[in-house]
Amino acid sequence: MADESAPVYNIDDYQEIKEGKATILFPKNNEEFYNTVQQFNRDMSIAAIKTWRDIATEAKLERYEKSTKPNKVRPKTTFTVLEALAASGLRSVRYAKEIEGIEYILTNDMLPDAVESIKRNVHFNGLSQRLVRANLGNAISVMYGYRDKELFDVVDLDPYGSAAPFIDGAIHSVKPGGLICVTCTDLAILASNNHPEACFYKYGGNPLKAEFCHELALRLVINSLQQAANKQKLFIEPLMSCSIDFYVRIFVRVHSRPLMVKTVASQTGLVHHCRYCGTYTTQPLGAIERGKGDSHKYLVPTGPPVDRRCEECGSKQEIGGPCWIGPLHNKDFVRRLYKGVSVADKSMYGTQPRMKGMLKVILEELDDAPFHYTLSQLCSAVRSSCPPLTKINSALLNAGYRVSGSHTRQASIKTDAPPQVVWDIMRAYVEQAGRSAKIEEGSPAHRILEKKPVTDVSFAAHKDADPESRRIKLVRYQINPEKNWGPKARHTEARNPAATEAKRKQTQSSNENSNGDADAAAAAAASGISAVSVSDSQSKKPRTE
């Protein structure tokens, strides 16, 4: 069961935690953290890597069969994986035990205690340390270090916080045609306007406090991946982009296609968003003019597409991005993934019902309609009660437009209808339901409702207004999975009792000194003199993210 260099440990110092086919030893002194909510992340990643493996293998074998070279060599179908930020090694252990065809996994962490934990869990699960190779190193240095070696087929980034520092290294360490899996948990930056400066320097774009903020978070991360890849003349294809609980998880395939890189500007853009009513308009940063045959001409776009004030309610507009405005998913990939999860044994994925629900909603999403409204937002803007979602969906479908939900937000309305049509439908609904007496003249709601409709609106029930995922009662949107759920504490080294006691004494001494400074300040204040504590002024540092 063990290699010759098997780690030595006392089983009584650990508790066993089972997930999938893996059992990890979780230390009682909080050496690493374990978050049960993240099992969905790992389940989805296993299913996604299996799907990518099957597609990549089929493509390799197809090229082999078509080749007419007399000395052609059958391609190997095994693949390599890098987990750059591994902590306990649970993810790598599950990959090794649950995904067939892995040649080896380089399981890296920069903390010695974490590397010992990886070795311990690899040994405890009966895996070879040649298959799961524990590695001590800085993730960025490790990834850049493999530029001159054999690149990895799969690179997995699952950091605590932002993946931004690791994105360029991942691009440099993955093979063309390979898969990059990225997690970002810093949604306080990506999905709000509290720290736009932090979002811009990390991801190269501005976030918005909008109903579609979680979709924008996905698009900002994809754009960051795309920009890093384009510098190497590589193109990023989003296979599946998921907004999950308190984080985003994105699966992209890296292609060596310089011609595709030229199309990126037309799939990157800004989003103009009304602060009051939520009306949004996208503006591509590039344009493509098709010529004869397969020729194309790449142009600078015209603009802006909107005025400074919202055309519907007259309120100010704000600008989000630049961000990716192309497809978030490859529907063929998601379709195969959904099929694989659906036919899998229930014991394979502990979160299978939720996986099926999210994948089905993703399959129903419109590919070519970035961003979305929500029912509550539309009704709030006109001070109206909320009708059934199917009523608004029916009106959009009856008007000749497409509509779907978004997996990023419950009661979302993703449509290719222009804003004028959406608000005509809301005006027709208010006329039917009754106008609120609290709407003041000259208010944004008043300006919306005073506009003359130009769309013939019919609320007759449409057969496609209720999505299949809802009709077959899948788990479409996850409720809170447990009490006080969310990100756990950051991974730390094992606590040494002697070091803990020394730190306690240091803190106590510091408190005594600060009390002395406070007494001196009080005495100085009594005498009318302004006192400054040197120790305080030196210890204060500017806040950083």
In terms of topology, how is this protein built?
Elements: E1 14-19, E2 22-27, H1 39-66, E3 79-83, H2 90-98, E4 102-109, H3 112-124, E5 132-136, H4 139-145, E6 152-157, H5 164-173, E7 174-184, H6 187-190, H7 196-203, H8 213-230, E8 235-244, E9 247-255, H9 258-261, E10 268-274, E11 280-284, E12 287-290, E13 296-299, E14 317-324, H10 331-343, H11 352-364, E15 373-374, H12 375-381, H13 389-398, E16 403-406, E17 409-415, H14 419-433, H15 444-450, H16 468-471, H17 497-526, H18 534-539
Helix pairs in contact: 1-10, 4-5, 5-8, 10-11
Description of the molecule:
The chain is an alpha/beta fold and 545 residues long. Helices cover 38% and strands 20% of the residues. It contains 18 helices and 17 strands. It has helices spanning 39-66, 90-98, 112-124, 139-145, 164-173, 187-190, 196-203, 213-230, 258-261, 331-343, 352-364, 375-381, 389-398, 419-433, 444-450, 468-471, 497-526, 534-539; strands at 14-19, 22-27, 79-83, 102-109, 132-136, 152-157, 174-184, 235-244, 247-255, 268-274, 280-284, 287-290, 296-299, 317-324, 373-374, 403-406, 409-415. A seven-stranded mixed sheet has the order 5-4-3-6-7-9-8, with helices on both faces. Strands 11-10-14 form a three-stranded antiparallel sheet. It has a three-stranded antiparallel sheet with strand order 15-17-16. A hairpin with a 2-residue loop joins strand 8 (235-244) and strand 9 (247-255). Helix 1 crosses helix 10 and helix 4 (139-145) runs parallel beside helix 5 (164-173). It starts with 13 loop residues before the first strand and ends in a 6-residue tail after the last helix. It catalyses: guanosine(26) in tRNA + 2 S-adenosyl-L-methionine = N(2)-dimethylguanosine(26) in tRNA + 2 S-adenosyl-L-homocysteine + 2 H(+). Residues 482-545 are annotated as: Disordered. Keywords: Methyltransferase, RNA-binding, S-adenosyl-L-methionine, Transferase, tRNA processing, tRNA-binding. This is tRNA (guanine(26)-N(2))-dimethyltransferase. It is an enzyme of class 2 (transferase).
